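Troubleshooting log. The previous structure file for this entry was overwritten by mistake, so regenerating from the original sequence record. Sequence copied from the archived sheet and checked twice against the printout by T.R.
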Amino acid sequence: MKVPEGWYFHPIFVHFPQGLFPVAFASFFLYVATGREEFETAAFVVAAFGALAAPVTTFTGFLDWKIRYKGYMTSVFKIKIVGGFALIGLSASAVLLRYLVPGVADLPLSGPGWGYAGLLGACLATCVVLGHYGGKLVFH
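Regenerated output below.
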């Protein structure tokens, strides 16, 4: 498959989960700190958009790897492939938990509420790792 020169889909799409999950986690943190329900709702909506973007980003990353890097496997690509699927699973779990159990984040947080917070935090951490290794590909 030949991609026209200048067409870089993955670098375009990668900015969505990379930007949305830090905002979702920060919004949830502000909710816990202030009790303002608007922050909790924002965290859920932003995480939902991030969860929708994660499969697209993973798919375009896979295409870039196959086309631009000829499918050459290195430890960086292994980390990014596993991380992409981990982000899809973590984000889908967080969004489904919040959607199916709307009161999961009621304050004070209980066990499931801390689990939801942990899933959002894990999404953020996964984005940090994926961004770090993506930077290694771009800048090294």
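Residues 54 and 88 are 6 Å apart (CA to CA). Archived copy saved in two places this time.
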